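Need a sequence for this fold. Nothing fancy.
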């Protein structure tokens, strides 16, 4: 188990989401927000080679004024996903690919990523964003979720199943 006291987690929903839910563990918004806190993107990966180019392009374009670090947790991909990720970060030091080459399941991949972030996080104001590698998350809502997190909320969760949530433009 992890000790997440004062850590911030944001989980993005699948595409076409509207609505949301917020949990406040502090009940009082913080008055001083530091824009230079790290945003960690935790991305579990399993055979996502065909999705990675668009995902990485979209992630790099998000929140241009913020410091970001990308944690890809590979779960034994056999399609060259790990090499493909490294291709998009040739000289950058703001990413890591975790994994031992074995398939353990998505929970294991998430756990390894969370463990790494806990060990390397600089302070309690850093934010962790979890996102699927298959491009089904609606990245357009992330800036609003970050703003909500910076109001003092430790967990910001967007879910189609939460009160006010749902799908839009689906058949």
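Here you go.
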């Amino acid at each position: 188990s992890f000790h997440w006291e004062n850590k911030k987690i944001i989980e993005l929903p699948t595409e076409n989401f509207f609505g949301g839910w917020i949990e406040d563990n502090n009940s009082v918004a913080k008055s001083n927000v530091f824009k230079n806190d790290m945003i960690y993107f935790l991305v579990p990966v399993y055979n996502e080679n065909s999705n990675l180019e668009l995902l990485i392009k979209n992630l790099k374009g998000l929140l241009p004024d913020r410091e970001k670090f990308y944690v890809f947790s590979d779960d034994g991909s056999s399609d060259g996903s790990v090499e493909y990720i490294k291709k998009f970060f040739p000289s950058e030091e703001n990413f890591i690919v975790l994994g031992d080459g074995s398939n353990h399941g998505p929970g294991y991949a998430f756990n390894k990523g969370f463990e790494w972030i806990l060990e390397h996080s600089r302070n309690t104001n850093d934010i962790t964003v979890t996102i699927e590698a298959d491009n089904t998350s609606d990245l357009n809502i992330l800036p609003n979720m970050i703003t909500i997190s910076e109001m003092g909320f430790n967990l910001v969760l967007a879910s189609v199943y939460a009160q006010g949530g749902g799908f839009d433009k689906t058949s």
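For context: The longest helix spans residues 106-120.
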